[in-house]
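Sequence only, no structure available. Ideas?
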Amino acid sequence: MDTHSFPHLLATLVALLLATKLLGVAAQRLGQPAVVGELIAGVLLGGSVLGLLDPADPVIRSLAELGVVVLLFEIGLHTDVRSLTRVGKEAITVALVGVILPFGMGFASARLLGLSTIPSIVAGAALTATSIGISARTLSDLGQLDSAEGQIVLGAAVLDDIVGLVILSVVSALVGGATLTLAGVTGTTAIAVGFVVAAIVIGSLLAPPLFRIVARVDETGALGVAGLTFAFFLAWLASRAGSATIIGAFAAGLVLHNTPQRQSIERATTAIGHFFVPIFFAVVGAAVDLQSLADGKALAIGGTLIAVGLISKFAAGFAPFWFRGSKSLIGVAMIPRGEVGLIFAQMGLATGALTPQLYSAIALMVLATTFVTPPLLAMLVHDRTNTSGRIDSPGEGGIDDLVAGASRTHARRSGATDPNRMVSDTADPSPPSGSDPPRSL
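Reply:
I predicted one. Tokens follow.
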């Protein structure tokens, strides 16, 4: 069969969607987040095992990129900017330490292992950015996205991505032989940060009246289409401005969070997310090449980078020493590198800065940190729930519904439907009189 034919694409999608759904449910049955099963499905379908899913296929890659855009838009819809600002100092501290420490340790380790300067810089850079898609999806699955720790991780991961874009631009220039200048770094930073600020400020002024007009249109699905169009537009605008599409999608969700039409937009986003989001996680898993890891040097470098990746990000969670919540939860949630780390690795390979063995070593680090995070977070949340007897219950119809049905099961188990309520396992299921008490972060 022609691998570029439409029937082949349909066959690939059938295998991908079935595998991610079945393994996602299986992971939940074992007490793990569904994303673990989706990542494993990608490994099994990829070139290392069955060879049914090619992550380099342009159509599959485009579908995966749409998946992460939809996911980040939904995360933004679920995020209150005021909640982020309440933990802004903690998030900034975690983000900065979570960039400086991994980069410094990664660069030093690579040099000690005999790598030259440029490959060592690429290796260090690949350790800097946290995958907001992996972390937010897993925290949502576990009902922790709205907690203080979840908001710190979300804010820090967004800042990490912005800083990562700056580092990627600088590293790309160095690999290409360009001279590093302060003006160039400052300009790249200003674009990345300025876009997010401008999008939120301008979008908050323009979006409400526009969506009020759309709401008057008596047409089924109009609000959902308008919301997704707005997200895709800001994602495209971010790319054109020199930022990342996921930053634009996240900013679009933040803008629409306080609009009265948010629930209708969320329902449409969730429906389309059930198709696209698992593709993204499967493609991340399919990127691993198990055969290339047979090289001893690649394994040594990869093992060292894994250790650095785990230790440095976990330590970053303890940087806001004044925070009284679970620093371990923050540190573990900052560990996964996901698609961002792979972008660095692929850039290094494409420009010749990395050999295939070094690329495999970095890919091993990316996938190891991605795979280890969901089960570790599940263990921490389980212990925290058993200790405190309290859980954050995810809401219905939002980001949690993109987790292979986990949210409704969790909500039924906790007896909760209000995403802003802290619910005790021993609480009386009957609603109290009057309004619910404010949720404590």
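The mean pLDDT is 77.
Hope that gets you unstuck.
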